[in-house]
UniProtKB/TrEMBL annotation:
The lineage of its organism: Bacteria, Bacillati, Bacillota, Negativicutes, Acetonemataceae. GO terms for molecular function: ATP binding; ATP hydrolysis activity; L-isoleucine transmembrane transporter activity; L-phenylalanine transmembrane transporter activity; L-valine transmembrane transporter activity. One of its GO terms (cellular component) is plasma membrane. This is ABC transporter related protein. The keyword S-adenosyl-L-methionine does not apply. Residues 4-252 form the ABC transporter domain.
Length: 255
């Protein structure tokens, strides 16, 4: 069954059609890229898929059910987690607490339930702590668990953001420019990590990225946005040679 199906999505801001007739289908387990020149509407598309914006028109089905009109936290609970182009961590909390929060969020109890569960509270806290530490190990951040998130170098903050998104136990992970600000070596490690987490967590991944070597290297299929509309989709080889894509990038090299 298709995991994510967006049909003819549009988003209008004032007079500007930021996303227009955007359709996309992702099957479970796929690793798909969304590319396009600056201002093409990529982040707006992510914001529609994650409930930050409601579409002006169109439909989004996740796991067979409509998610249009749901709040971002409800969409996370349905199984879509994301990272942001401009990293959004709890800057003044520790690295460990940033990941623990995602667990608390996933295991959200009502007040009565919390009181009834009080006896088990400490045990659960410890379990959450252990699970969070496991995630930090995967992302080679265990040694930094007590550091304040904002003091981490940029590449590590990006890794922490991915760790936190994964702690929400999503089926679909949306990564908005995960390699932004990374050097070539960090980008290379990130590519390996993306492939690895997909296998390890049985994930489906959709990523926005400007770094063509990353997109072409890890994605099995790519959608190309230009002025809010999908102008091409296909395998990396098909996209590289597509004249409309080359024209949209106006001489920017697609290699
Ligand atoms: N909240 C908003 N209000 C008004 N216009 C917006 C809003 N969000 C995005 N836009 C506009 O919609 C268009 C698409 O922007 P978007 O950020 O989605 O593009 P993008 O492809 O992610 O760009 P970039 O690669 O530069 O991040 C742009 O013209 C942008 O100015």
């Amino acid at each position: 069954m298709t995991l994510l199906k967006a049909t003819k999505l549009s988003k209008v801001f004032g007079g500007l059609r930021a996303v227009s007739n955007f359709s996309l289908e992702i099957q479970p387990g796929e690793l798909v890229g969304l590319i396009g020149p600056n201002g093409a509407g990529k982040t707006t598309a992510f914001n529609l898929l994650t409930g930050v914006y409601e579409p002006t028109s169109g439909e989004i089905e996740f796991d067979g059910k409509s998610v249009v009109g749901l709040k971002p936290y409800q969409i996370t609970q349905r199984g879509i987690a994301r990272t942001f182009q401009n990293i959004r961590l709890f800057a003044n909390l520790s690295v460990l607490d940033n990941v623990k929060i995602a667990y608390h969020f996933h295991v959200k109890y009502g007040l009565v339930e919390s009181v009834l569960r009080m006896g088990r509270y400490h045990k659960e806290e410890e379990e959450i702590r252990q699970k969070a530490i496991q995630f930090l190990k995967i992302f080679q951040l265990e040694d930094k668990k007590d550091e304040i998130a904002k003091n981490l170098p940029y590449g590590e903050q990006r890794r922490l953001e991915i760790a936190r998104a994964l702690a929400a136990q999503p089926k679909l992970l949306l990564l908005d420019e995960p390699a932004a600000g990374m050097n070539p070596q960090e980008t290379h490690q990130l590519m390996d990590m993306i492939r690895w987490i997909r296998e390890k967590f049985d994930l489906t991944i959709l990523l926005i990225e400007h770094d063509m070597s990353l997109v072409m290297g890890v994605c099995e299929r790519i959608y190309v946005l230009d002025y809010g509309s999908i102008i091409a989709h296909g395998t990396p080889a098909e996209i590289k040679n597509n004249p409309r894509v080359i024209e949209a990038y106006l001489g920017e090299e697609v290699h």
